Every structure is written in structure tokens, then in C-alpha cells.
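Both lines are retained for reference:
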Amino acid sequence: MKFKDLRYEPIALEETCNELKRLSQSLADANDAKTFKKVFKEICQIQIHIDTMSNLASVRHTINTADPFYNQENDWWDMNSPLLQKYFSDIANIAVNKPYRDELLDEIYEPYFKIAECKARSFNEKIIPLLQQENRLVSAYDKLKASAQIEFDGKICNLAQIAAYSSNADREIRKKAYDAKIKFYQDNEDKFDELFDKLVHVRHQIALALGQKNFIAVGYDRMQRLDYDDKMVARYREMIATHVTPLAQKIVEDQAKRINVEKVRYYDYDYEFSSGNPMPLASYDEKINAAKQMYHAMSKETAEFIDLMVDNELWDLESKPNKELGGYCTEFAEYKVPFIFSNFNGTSQDIEVLTHEAGHALNSYLSRDISIPDCVFPTLESCEIHSMSMEFFTYPYMDKFFGNDAEKYHYAHFSNVFKFLPYGVLVDHFQHEIYANPEMTPQERKETWRRLEHKYTPYKDYEGNEMLEKGCWWYQQGHIFSSPFYYIDYTLAQVCALQFWDRMYNQDPQAWQDYIKLCKLGGTKTFLKLVEAVNLRSPFDDDCLLKTLNDARSYLDTFDQNTLK
């Protein structure tokens, strides 16, 4: 069934709440594991329906934020999802406290109970009004960014479209385009500051209402950190700053030589080669046909997957007016299909995002028969292993998209891993400081961002742009507004994905099968247990991190800078 034909049904709130209340009571009354499992299956079916309708409404809203019906439905979900959350929190509380919990593990995976504990700690009925307020503020941020209409080059561009000029061969055009983009943020600086200030304070109020001193512990529970804590993350951040930031500095210096500039400025950052960045096939249809060929050549599983996606139009990939920015993958569990959202803008980013989100979607497709909604996708740092590893596994097929420029794509993509890791931990560190100090003023938050940029990304040069110099770059990072503490996940997954790349590069015949196994496991294990199950090592292991980085650096050194012009 094609995406356009998937039926959306508004949730009958009172009826659904009454049914969840009834089942919750039945679960509480269940005196044995057999009865519990029977009731639990009924609850899962209701959750699957709710999640499917919520995701359908969200996707159709993000595709067109001006659509009046789905705009209204988005407002409905902002208001009522916390009310539904109450019942699932009650169910979680019941599940984790059953004396026969061990007897349930033959059918209900261990991560479900760990996630249930997180849900129980991070929800209380008295915070429902605060959650509703938080949802409205996040939606307002998304709509603000989607509203951008920037006049440039004789066109009206949104933020995704103006970003395409960041890789233009003409340096003056790059600068003017980047400045035009940042001017949108400058013109709306007070709005971004106000939205974020309200978000920080409402999240702090949520934390206080839950008995926490600040939002950090709540944020970790929301992100379902099942087998690591903030101390492990802080140590990991320092390892990245010590071992990766200097290498990223060297990569940026090499970039300056390649593009014949004295120093890489903020508007040069995305321009990699003096002969121009690798550009993918021009037309949408050509890109889709190349993706079909690639995934048919890769494996039986990916061939079946890509045919499902193409035949059922389970994606919306092109940038258009009133469409939200970014890219994501979600699923419609009732139909057992994934969906990919993206914003093609004609750059190599189109292919990177497509392969990244395809990794998520393949996980969803291969784990679609897992019957417990909370265990289809794993927790997010594990999810990002699927996506980032897929970016590497597609390397042998990049000539289908870039022709003779495939090697340039490989170098640009691989070297950007080293530039991304310091940035990724910077975003995480920033959020820890913000929520540890909720009374910071907007000015102090900007100063904090700029201070951390100097630590993790000292090669960033913003000379000539007042907004960036004073610490406003983070306005662009949606996760900071909408999903607090969702970012370290990408860096942890990147270290795991680099291990898959190393095994592929060294022709380990088990690498691909372990990747497929990882996708099929879904969320049936916690992050560190998933990593172990597919013969990877924990990124928190110092030896693993250093070996992975050294192997990747050795590969980077195989590229001849003299040929990368």
C-alpha cells in the first residue's frame, strides 16, 4: 500500500483512555505470568495503533506545515500525547514491580523492563501541563525554521535550499549565501532565545516536580540510557577532545590548501575541493534508480527492502516550501513499513542522508515482526549504528551516484567523521551545562557555546559574522531544542560504525552478516549488549576508541592530497 493511501484515523481519546485504564487494572490484578502476558499483548496492540496514527500525523505535518488539517492534528497530539503517556507510565510501573518478572523474560525482552523503569522515573501525572507546554514550544521552533523565505540568487529559498550554496565553487557566493542564511536567524534572534529560554525553564520545572535537582537525570531517562551514565559520557568527551580535535584541526588545514585559501572561514567549511565538491546525479529519478541498483547488488535483504520503499513511495525526499528541515526515519507499525523523510538540495548531502536514513529503515524492515513496540527500534545510540554503518557499507557503490568523483566523495565523507566527532560531543557538553545551570541568561548560553567551540572545534573561524562570533550557531541544531541530550548518540554510534567500516575494508566476511544481525535484533538488547552480540567493542573502552581512531586515520592517510584537488 502506497504512503498516500495509508489511512489516518484521529484517536478517540476518551474511549482509548478508558480501554487503557481497564487493561492497566487487569495487568495490576494479574497474579501469574501467563495472565500478565495475555493482557500485555492487548496493550501492545493499542500502543501500535496509537504510535501509527501519531507517526502518520507527524509525517504529513512535517511534509507540509501549512496543511490546515494536519496542523490541527499536530496541535492535538501536542496536547493529548502526555495524557496518553500517563497510562503507559502506569503500565510501566506495574510491569517493573511484578514479583514474577523473571518469568516474563521468555516473551518480553529485558530492555522493555529497563525502559519501563526510565518511563516510571520520568513521568508523573502532575507534569502533564508542563509536557503539553513543552510540546507546543518545540512545534513553534519547527514552524519558525520551516517559515524561512530567503531571497537569494533570484529565488526564494528555504533553509535547506540556501544550504546548497555552501558548496558553491565561487567563494563570494558561498559567503553571501551563508550570511543570508544566518541573517534569518539574526532577524529572529529574540524568538529563538525566547523559545529556548521557555524550554529550559519548563524542563527544569519538570525535573523539580519529579524530585530531581535539574533536568539532566530526567533527560537521561527520557533518552533511555540503559547501561551508561553521565560520568562515562564526560570521560568519553574528554577522550574525543584530546585525540580527535587535533586531527580535525589538521584536516581543516589540509582543506585550506586544497581549496587555495589562507584559512578556512565559516562559509568555506562545506567546500572540500578546488575543482568542486562531488556532485550526485542531477535528477530525482536518476538518484532513485541508482539507489535501486545499489541495494539490489548489495544483498537479498536490501533488494527486498528497496523494492518495498520504491513501490510504495515510502519516502518524501525533495525540499519544498513549508516542509520542515532535516531528515529522519520513522515507522508505521500497523502496516509494518518504515518511512524516510529528507530534503534533497542537489549536493552530496542528498546521498549521505539517503543512505543514513536507509540504514534506520532497513532496521525497521528487518525487525518488523518484533511484537513489543518499545523493542522494535533499539535505544537511539544503537539506532544510529544502523544508519552510520550503512553510509560506509555503500562506499563500493558510490560511483553509481558520483561517477569518477566517487573517490572525492569517500575522502570528504570519511574526513568529515573526524570533524563531526568533536562537534557532536560539543553539542552534548553544551546541553549538560545548560541544564545544570537553568538560570543562565540567553547571553550566557551563547557565551557558553562559544567557549565550548574553542575547546572542541578551535578551527572554526567566524570572522566577519557577528551572530556566529557571539555564539548563536546552535540555533540551527534542532536536537538542542526538540530532543535534549539526543546527540552524543551519533558519536557513540560513529565509533561503532567505524569498526564495521574497518572490518569491511579488511574484507572480513562476517562484517555484513553481523550488520544484518544487528538490524534484526532491533531493541531486544541494550546498547552495550547489542555491540557485543555483533562482535563490536564499546566506544567507552579507551583501547577500542584509540584503535578505531588510529585505523581510521591510517585509511585517511592513503588518500593522496595532490590528487584531491
